[in-house]
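PROTOCOL LOG
Step 1. Enter all chains and additional molecules of the complex.
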Amino acid sequence: MPQAFDAQNPPFDRLSHDQISQLRAALDIGYFRPGEAIIEQGQRSENLHIVIKGSVEERDGEKIEAVLGPKDTFDSRSLVHGPAGTSFVAADETLCYLVPKALVLELIAKNTGFAAFFYSEISRKLRSYGTGREDGGVDTTLRARVRDARYHPAVFVDGATTIKQAGRVMREHNNNTLLIREGNGIGIITGTDLAKRIVLEGHTLSTKIRDVCHFDVVSINIDDFIFDAVIAMTHNNKRRLAIESNGQYVGVLEDIDILGLVAGNPQLIPGQIERAHSIDDLILSTSDIQSQVERLHRQGARVEVIAEITSDLNRRLFAKVFNLTASPAIREAGCLMVMGSEGRGEQTVRTDQDNGILLSRPVPEEELQAFRDGFTHALETFGFPPCPGNVMVRNPQWSQPIDNFLRQLKSWIITPTDDSPMYLGIFFDAVSVTGPSELLDRAKSAMIELMHGEGAYLSRFARAIDQFEGASAGVFTSIMASVGVGSDEIDVKKTGTFPIVHGIRTFAIDVGLKEVSTVKRIEALAANGNLGAEMARDLVGALSYFMEIRLGSQLRAMKTGKRELEAIVRLNELSTRDRDLLRDALRVVKRFREVVRSRYHLTVF
Amino acid sequence: MRKELFRRLRAAFDRLLLADNAYAFLFKPDDSGEVVSLDCETSGFNILADDVVSIAAIKIRGKRILTSECYRALVRPGAAMDVSAIKVHQLREKDVAQGRTISEVLPELLHFIGSRPLVGYWISFDVRMLNKYLYSLLNIHLPNRQIDVSELYYERKYGNAPPGTAINLSYAAILADLKLPLLPQHDAFNDALSAAQMYLVLQDMQQRGARIPRPPRGEEPASERFMTTG
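Step 2. Run joint prediction.
Step 3. Record the structure below.
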């Protein structure tokens, strides 16, 4: 019973104390010489292997799919789901713990968290693991202190103040709650209370506030925990607490402030954007959107939710910038669109601008030029870097009357240059932000009409999927690392997200889908029978995982100021669980690539 | 070679002198195909004066370490424990007091190991320690063949070394060269397990003719120059 066996290592961290003892008692250790097949392709394994030392190559025929090292576990699939699809070969002198199959099956039956590791579908695995971040979430919020909440500072009035004066004070201080000094006690009143007194109880504007306020004020110390505040509120049936510090009342904590601590305050940003009168006013909002992302991520919100909130806020921001920078003629004729990932709503942190405008009729050239510069410059000020492919309003190609744009579109399809597939792809993901959206519909319909069912155009378009090839699950490998190349880094955008997004985009054009987000497209394709249900589920799961893991490295990249590393994930910084999921997700990409290749005959090229 | 001859000769004598015929199995030729990795923690390093305080033995069948069927025992020593040894393996007298006497433990251990070859790091020390009791119990010495992993290591690393090469046969050096994990040491089970792992790797290297690379002359860490080949 090797005590040295590390039970903290996933999936074993999910086992109960007794189950770990049971596991330890049953362990043996096996030695495998270099080149020895530990599990042959097509065989079933009698043991689950956990590498102690050495390395093990996972091979598909001659091709090396992955290299496993200490603490990695294999082959969960063949243990549960039948013969191994790949073979496992010792790369050097290798020692593995051997867990008997019967015990693994018994533990799977007893412990669902442990069982999740053996699910073959990545989507099921992800669900069962949950977001699994230890820090963040409601728990830590409740353990925050009252001083951490965005509470309202205390505003005091005298008991002799009239209702009318109190209303004024509330407006001046932009504060809905007042504290009332009366003798040695304090009272509290809110804007709603004032209104109720007058409308429902027949008081007049000159009624003294001491006659209508509540004197049963419940207070809490500024250093108390938020959960104390929650208990005090529930216990006393109050929605507001007076905050006390060193014998002074310093503020008022509302129940809504606690909500803000959990979820941030995304609901406040649209109002800010709405009220802005100049580009400068908007700068604060853009940084708020950004900190929103961080907060939501820290608190364990699912990445899809973060992306949805962010893209909604960004679109409001773009619309406002458009209204501030465009002349009346442009505002009337122009349909502002965002494209690429911004259009698909898969954006979480600010990345390159991908935007354009379609005009229903020509507008004066000086006005258009002023708008092009003004709009693009404003977004740059906010920290949206310019698009390297120059897909933005500033570029006349992306800000022209619709008829010219349609000709442009046609030439990209029929006489493509190297960049054409990229332009088409970005445009196909466009959504209209403001202005006459039928312009965008017309352009998209024209594009679909030209391309859908056209094998030659489609396969030229689909070919971009191989752009970053070689990035199969093999990138995982430390093979390169062993010869000194740092391939323990993996670009999830290129090797994970892009092939899925682009492959799905190709299908969407092929069958003429109007949906824009990749997940919606996948669902529509599955519903129409263009894509197998299992493949669809796996793709959604994999995509979500890539976004999740990428958001983490994006936030890190922003902190360190190294934007170029934003899509890079370092394998040695991942937990075993994350590596396992990443490997599964990359396998899904590989399978999908094959589907796209054979559908569009890419192997012929 | 001379050592092996001596062992066989002594085993032949011991067979005749064996006090209790129930233990004749110790002298039967071994046909199990297994070896046993053995480690004793002792109360000190003086074989005559000190006592065994814990024993662990793990069978190795083919290329598999059968940790799931190992033997472990704590032994209550006759003599008081040497304080310096407590510092080494942190078994306090209190812990050991829960153990049984060596005369209870030894028969179990003998049945567990049978006539299988014994594997260990400096295994001769452990065997001599056990022989002290065995001699008074059954009038014999352990007849089992002994495989010392430090000798296997020496042969793989320094077997072809030119004279004057610095030699380091320390436990840590073996673990490092074989890239084995360092387990919490001075626990009989962990030490037996490490020795078993060393044995499997070294034995396989021997079969494949693979050698452990030596640093070029003069570049050895200074600490490794304390011994040299003659």
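Step 4. Note key features.
Chain A has four domains: 12-118, 140-263, 266-443, 460-604.
Residues 12-118 of chain A form a domain with the Jelly Rolls fold (CATH 2.60.120.10).
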